[in-house]
Specification:
mainly alpha, about 0% strand, globular, 2 strands, two-stranded antiparallel sheet
Length: about 425
Amino acid sequence: MRLLQPPRAAAAAAAASPLPPRDGRPEQAASSPLSIALSVALVISLAVINRILYRMALVPLENYVFFLAQFQTFAYVIAYAIVLAIQSKNGKLAPTAWQVPVRYRNVFLGIGFVEAMSALLSFIGAAKLPGVMVPLLSQTILVWQVVLVYVVLKKSLSWVQLVGVAAVVGGVGLAASPGGSTALPSIWANVDPKYALLYVVSCLFPAIDTLLKDRLFKRGKKWQGGRDVDLFVVNTFGSASQALFVFLLLPLVTKSRGIPMSGMGAHLAMGWDCFRGLTPACGSDCSGAPLLPVLYVAVNLLFNISALNLISKAGNMVFSLVMSGIVPLTMWAFTLPIPVVVGVLGTPPMLGMNFPAGTLLLTAGLITYNSKLLFSGARFARTRPLSDSESDNDEGDNDEGDNDEGDNEGEHNKRD
């Protein structure tokens, strides 16, 4: 069982998602139907709240996404390190566990770089988009994963998976279309296309992250003589690498906003004031900080814990089906006039007549793409993304070698 840190997330984002165990349901006493039902309800609730808080947290820190990215990253470093320390104290780590980050340091650096890029780009893009567009555009991660399967892995997908991909893409386009109206739907009103494109591009990096981690787990397992690489070793050192690259990428972030190197110190000072909820010298409205960012990270952690709990009780198939159903629920949640959400994000947009049909088609596409896993229990596809993008997941089999994408491995990527 592996919990891979959210990029964004986030994000991809994000947004964080846990990894279902490679061989399906873990061996343990059967859970009662009521316990599973309660776990499903908790996962769905936290997933939707997590995505809404993700967008809300970007409102006060819209001009200072660096601070949100680093705060999220350090929170995960601390959480993962605590779990790792407890495992080490209880003697649950293999003697070679601590050598994995050293032996595969270049892979860890690569993981840190792509997760940092994903977090920063998704935060910058999502901050300028209506909330309902974020989970909608997050599904484009599936397209990136398909491209990587063909271009990088030189593999082909089954026709069922290709039908699922086509349905997801069609669902995204249909949900965003105006329907019978000839006017531009308000979901696109006042949206700068470059930020929508930036968010779509940010989804490429969690897809790359999935491939890197897949290779790391395979090679690490082979090097350790068949013992799986510890999840929290990967997460702790991967998160630390991400924090490093978020800092190193700061000059590019500030330059993209027209801030010269000489003004970086002042920008950081104003960002720190904003993160604390103060009014910085630039005059930005930082109302909601630090409460909203803290709530987002806290709920994100709770979501990961509850999702791992659901996997341990019900296994891969139930978890994947639940995550597919969360996509339309999250989009619908952004359209509801919830007072606390409206107070931060403004009045929900009026959606086109095709929105319901689009969300249903998108969900059907996700289920179709995962159908082999969901309905036959087979391990399916190297790259099978979760519906909630800011979280990252990686799922595959335990073979050391590469496997056929159409019928062997599965991986999830979702960053929020």
